[in-house]
Amino acid sequence: MDFETFEEWSLTLGIGGLVLFMIFIILDLAKTSKAGRFGTMILFLVLGLCLLGFIIKTVLVEVIL
Predict the structure, then answer these.
(1) Rounded CA gap, 19 and 22, in Å?
(2) Which among 12, 14, 19, 65 counts the fewest CB atoms within 10 Å?
């Protein structure tokens, strides 16, 4: 495996791991604060938009370049 392939896989797995960890943090925050069903939905909507923005930015960079 050459360096570029390793770098691409590491970046993909690392970012994926961070996204899963962020989802865990949001879920734990909702559970700890006893947000309820509606509050949990709002937390995932608001804090999840950051993740969606990052994914959209990554896709746009790949499409443009």
Answers:
(1) 5
(2) 65
What's the per-residue H, E or C state across the chain? CCHHHHHHHHHHHHHHHHHHHHHHHHHHHHHHCCCHHHHHHHHHHHHHHHHHHHHHHHHHHHHHC
CA torsion angle for 57, 59, 62, 65 (degrees, to 10)? Answer: -60
What residue segments make up the domains of the chain, in order of their start?
3-64
What's the whole-number mean pLDDT along residues 19-34? 90
pTM: 0.69
